[in-house]
Amino acid sequence: MAPGRTLIRHAGDPAAILIEGGDRILAAGQPAQIGAVPDARQVHLPDMLVLPALVNAHCHLDLSHLDPEPYGGDFALWLDGIRRRRVVDDELIAAAVRRGIELTRAGGTAIVGDIAGGASEIPARELRAAGIGGVSYLELIGVGNSRCRALETLDAAAAWLPSGPADPGGLSMGLSPHAPYTCDLDLYRRAARIDVPMATHLAETPDEVESIDALAEVLCMRPIIAAHVNYSREEHLDLLARAGTTVVYCPRAAAYFGHSSHGYRRMIRAGINVALGTDGLPCLDTPDRISVLDDMRLLYRRDGADPAMLLHMATVAAASGLGLDAGVVTLAPGPVAGLIALPVDPLDRCDPLAQVLRRDDAPRWVS
Ligand SMILES: [Zn+2]
Q: For residue 27, how many C-alpha atoms fall within 13 Å in the half-sphere facing its CB?
């Protein structure tokens, strides 16, 4: 038997995947095309759909010590409550992130765009140790006592943050000015000039829609990740498309706060790269996993969204928005961030991915 080669047959199309060493796809195609490969370990999953590992383009794993909780209806009050319960002790931050990583893994996710509150480097350390790839964004808050810390982080970042794209599946460091209502334009400009991945929260609530115009200059400086954009006007779509901004829609978090009419399909038609994210665990309805799979399910069930488009948003769009080689979250030959499997009914003629989105099963890791 060839060392480390596995031939997986499953209910999807293409139905056969040949992998080597658990992290490299040698071929994916019809079983007849690939042949028997007798020297490979054979894995038959006739009632499972195998998918590439998922990418969560916006999360806050350092809030994973807070369980899902109901929303009282006052966003400022809610945010205040979260800030008060945010842990600041290094060991407690590490423990919260480790729980977040466990839940992320349970959600079939190998790559994240994680916001490190307080510009802490602990989440990056924990993500690296766990082999989770993506970007750890040091969060900058430009008001009150936090402003000094934000300026220090910016000054240090230019010197020590490794620039350039991450290795396939690796973790890099980035910067995240929190939002236009906590960071002034100068802070945004300074962050955008440093050659590391950048993300921000944008237009999460209706009264922030003007902040897209206010940030236009910075958006046009370089492609960045804009989390949420729950509210936008027609002219903003052209701006975001031209700027190469990746919008990260967090459907369950948006629904939790009552923002239910996101323009994600209009954005995609306008040429904007739209990815999926979860935001923090307190806004989610799945205490045992953190996964954009459940956000795909919400959009499929609520909006009748196209399953293939949803998978693209949860893999390729998210990975490229984070500055990674999107090939690691496809079934194309080459390195792969991981493979997951989900139960389907092989006798059901409905598209297996649509079946997955109709059901609530947790993913299982295949490699
Ligand atoms: Zn967020």
A: 14
Res. 327: pLDDT tops 60: yes
Q: How far apart are CA 70 and CA 335, in angstroms?
A: 41
**Residue 267 DSSP SS3:** helix
Q: What is the DSSP letter of 66?
A: S
CA of 17 to the centre of ligand 1 (A): 36
What is the model's pTM?
Answer: 0.96
> How would residue 102 be classed by pLDDT, with cut points 50, 70 and 90?
very high
Residues whose beta carbons lie less than 5 angstroms from ion ligand 1: 279
CA of 242 to the centre of ligand 1 (A): 24
Cα 250 to averaged position of ligand 1 atoms, centre (Å): 9
What mean pLDDT, rounded, does the chain reach? 94
The Å distance, Cα 281 to ligand 1 centre, comes to: 10
Distance 200 CA to ligand 1 centre (A): 8
Rounded Cα gap, residues 326 and 314, in angstroms: 11
Q: Tell me the average pLDDT across 273-297.
A: 97
Average pLDDT over residues 311-331: 97
**Going from the N-terminus, what domains does the chain have, and what CATH number goes with each?**
5-52+331-365 (2.30.40.10), 54-329 (3.20.20.140)
Residues belonging to the chain:
367
Mean pLDDT of 81-88: 90
The percent of residues above 70 in pLDDT, for the chain, comes to 96
Give the Å distance between the CA of 204 and the centre of ligand 1. Answer: 9
Ligand 1 centroid to Cα of residue 1, in Å, is: 47
* Cα–Cα dist 187/185, whole Å: 5
CA distances in angstroms from 93 to 87, 107, 307, listed in the order given: 6, 21, 36
